[in-house]
Design goal:
This protein is of the alpha+beta class and 244 residues long. The protein is built from 4 helices and 9 strands; from the N terminus they run βαββββαββββαα. The two termini are 16 Å apart.
Amino acid sequence: MAQFYENAPIVEAVIDLQVENESFSEESFTKFSRSVSGRYDKKSPVNEAQFQINVPNGDVKRDFKNIGYRFVSNEADRVIIVKGKGFTFSNLPKYKGWSKFSAEAKNHWANFVKSLEPNKIRRIAVRYINKINIPATSGVELKDYFNIYPEISDDISPSINGAYMQVKIPQPDLGKNFASVINLATAEPDEPGFVTIILDIDVFALVEIDPTDSNLWAMLDQLREKKNKLFEASIKDSIRELIK
């Protein structure tokens, strides 16, 4: 069972499903929009920039193509992004737990499938972004708080003012096409006297399954459980004391 933290540092939880789809239309998006009407009334287009270069004179032409829509809940704590090639559901603060989060995602996914009629799911992912504020009047030693951190030789510098690192890790215990990406980075603190660290864990699988496959949500449960294990393996007790 996952460790419960009263002050869990989750700033965004994400379920992301990328699909193969050739048949969607603007009416498909309108149909999905009706399914969330009254609860997600803040709707905005998702655009993709397209560039064309005129070779003779070097002029660059930029156009924007509408590829989907972003729906924000009336409480501004949940976001749905619906595109022809994918579905993303995010829970912003305050996170209310996996059961409620995944149950709502499942409902929206069912409406996505009815509205856009995707052919197959190609990628599934569970991603959690954590923002951890460490009290400090000066710098902190990341190794005192994390089991994953960037390290440089003292010959380069005895200290750093900012950092970003990314590691991609295969997860053969889940399957050959399962992997995780862990990002750790410094960020601007919310207030003086703190050092702010972003710990971003994305667990995903490359798949080829039917959009209505009954095993989909069990697979997402697996990804979430792996995410929990990676989070625990990434932090030390000094972090646990801050978020307990």
